[in-house]
């Protein structure tokens, strides 16, 4: 479940704009989702190999060039599917939570 959630979060971030790995990690961290580089890099590679992401090297104002990732048309389609799945899961959890509250009364 976490793996699917990370894919969804990464695609949400990259839907806004292309980003390099450190920016993705910072965005996840600011959303209170702590992910380490050792988890992120293989996931980015897998998404790229699946055609969901592409990357482009860009010069950095400080240091070596950076690999910026962006979402592809296939990635947009996957994101739509993941949004539907997330909505369904969230509704199920909310319904269960509501049932628990009603039983408690």
Helix content: 55-70%
Strand composition percent? 5-15%
Q: Mind summarizing the main beta sheet?
A: 3 strands, antiparallel
Unreliable residue runs: none
Count of discrete alpha- or pi-helical segments spanning 4 or more residues: 4
* pLDDT averaged over residues: 92
Radius of gyration: 17 Å
Protein structure class: alpha+beta
Written as H for each helix and E for each strand, in order along the chain, the element string is: HEHHEEH
Q: Distance between the terminal alpha carbons, to the nearest Å?
A: 32 Å
Shape call: elongated
Strand tally = 3
Strand order of the largest sheet: 1-3-2
Polypeptide structure, described:
With 105 residues, the chain is α+β, with helices and mostly antiparallel strands. 67% of the residues lie in helices and 13% in strands. The chain is built from four helices and three strands, in the order αβααββα. It has a three-stranded antiparallel β-sheet with strand order 1-3-2. Strand 2 (53-58) and strand 3 form a beta hairpin. Helix 1 packs across helix 4. The model has no long low-confidence stretch (mean pLDDT 92).
Quick take:
With 105 residues, the chain is α+β, with helices and mostly antiparallel strands.
Jot down its keywords.
single chain; 105 residues; three-stranded antiparallel beta sheet; 4 helices
Topology:
Layout: H1 2-16, E1 19-20, H2 21-30, H3 37-49, E2 53-58, E3 66-71, H4 73-104
Antiparallel strand pairs: 1-3, 2-3
Helix pairs in contact: 1-4
